């Protein structure tokens, strides 16, 4: 099914012109759909044009059907319903610098990382560019105004496994005639699909690249990330260096600390050597609970010691603040259906 949010400005402009309408109608419609307006709300658009669009394109690709708010930090988790009955989750986190929405790119995920809930049911389907964009539009509409100022493609799914729809989203989300979210305020998280990382920057897309590394050696990485069978750690690092050389954007490496798996001082030393010599940053993550996975997080004292070890080796490193864990909205906890306290929606 096709939706207006799936269209770029130029694609919409061609449709408007082919309908015999004035070119300025495109800007009117594009502005309306960026606000999440239904056809009936497009007050300055001719009825005949609205009827034509309604006959060919759905009204809205995604709806919020449930919201949970963290009692600890105010983080909100949304359950979205898609046109075909599938559901996905997203999270809105509030910071001093703005509001960040964690956005999904697929229903489920085929990567099946050992610490993540998104891959438990495998990949169901890709989201269209409009369904990705629609998550932002829906949250803005819920709260009124341009609530979302920053976007992280870190929800369910591997963005670069849905490459075409992801890059179309990147094009649309920063269009000044629509949502107009700065390109520098968009982050893309990947488990390390090296060929797609290179393609992304070669084609001129420059989101903040965040790579889920989670291990300094191939041996350890293969135990927790099946993608490591196809891409060696050395290849991931080279792809990151290439991205930096082309874009000038600092790359961020995500590293979830798993008790007894990747949290030794030897791992810290190897990690520091891997990232030495180019502009990058390590984002340490205290593993969040996914009950089906059965992995334990590294104790906080050991997490802090791992961080200090990296810093003494000269690495740029921070420990990510965990938000929304009490509503299963923290890193690695999003899924294709909401489960809370034994209840399933």
Automatic annotation (TrEMBL):
S-adenosyl-L-methionine binds at residues 157-158, 189, 212-214, 288. It holds the Pfam family Radical_SAM. Its EC number is 2.1.1.192. It is found in: Cytoplasm. One of its GO terms (molecular function) is 4 iron, 4 sulfur cluster binding. The active site is at 89 (proton acceptor), 331 (s-methylcysteine intermediate). [4Fe-4S] cluster binds at residues 109, 113, 116. This is Probable dual-specificity RNA methyltransferase RlmN.
């Amino acid at each position: 099914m096709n939706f207006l949010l799936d269209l770029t400005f130029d694609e919409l402009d061609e449709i408007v012109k082919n309908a015999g309408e004035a070119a300025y109608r495109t800007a009117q419609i594009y502005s309306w759909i960026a606000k999440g307006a239904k056809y009936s709300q497009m007050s300055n658009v001719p009825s005949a044009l609205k009827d034509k669009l309604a006959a060919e394109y759905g009204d809205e690709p995604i709806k919020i059907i449930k919201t949970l708010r963290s009692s600890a930090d105010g983080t909100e988790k949304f359950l979205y319903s898609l046109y075909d009955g599938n559901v996905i989750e997203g999270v809105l986190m509030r910071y001093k610098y703005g509001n960040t929405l964690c956005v999904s790119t697929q229903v489920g995920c085929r990567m099946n990382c050992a610490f993540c809930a998104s891959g438990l049911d495998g990949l169901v389907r890709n989201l269209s560019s409009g369904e990705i964009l629609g998550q932002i539009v829906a949250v803005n509409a819920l709260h009124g105004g341009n609530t979302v100022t920053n976007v992280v493609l870190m929800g369910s799914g591997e963005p670069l496994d849905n490459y075409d729809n992801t890059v179309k989203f990147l094009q649309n989300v920063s269009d000044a005639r629509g949502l107009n979210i700065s390109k520098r305020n968009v982050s893309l998280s990947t488990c390390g699909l090296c060929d797609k990382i290179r393609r992304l920057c070669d084609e001129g897309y420059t989101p903040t690249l965040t790579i889920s590394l989670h291990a300094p050696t191939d041996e350890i990485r293969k135990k927790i990330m099946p993608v490591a069978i196809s891409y060696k750690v050395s290849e991931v690092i080279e792809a990151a260096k290439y991205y930096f050389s082309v874009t000038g954007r600092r790359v961020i490496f995500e590293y979830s600390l798993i008790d007894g798996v990747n949290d030794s001082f030897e791992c810290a030393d190897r990690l520091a050597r891997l990232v030495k010599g180019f502009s990058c940053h390590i984002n340490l993550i205290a593993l969040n609970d996914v009950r089906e996975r059965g992995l334990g997080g590294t104790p906080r004292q050991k997490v802090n010691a791992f961080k200090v070890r990296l810093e003494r080796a000269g690495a740029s490193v921070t420990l990510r603040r965990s938000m929304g864990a009490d509503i299963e909205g923290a890193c690695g906890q999003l899924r294709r259906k909401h489960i809370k306290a034994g209840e399933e929606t």
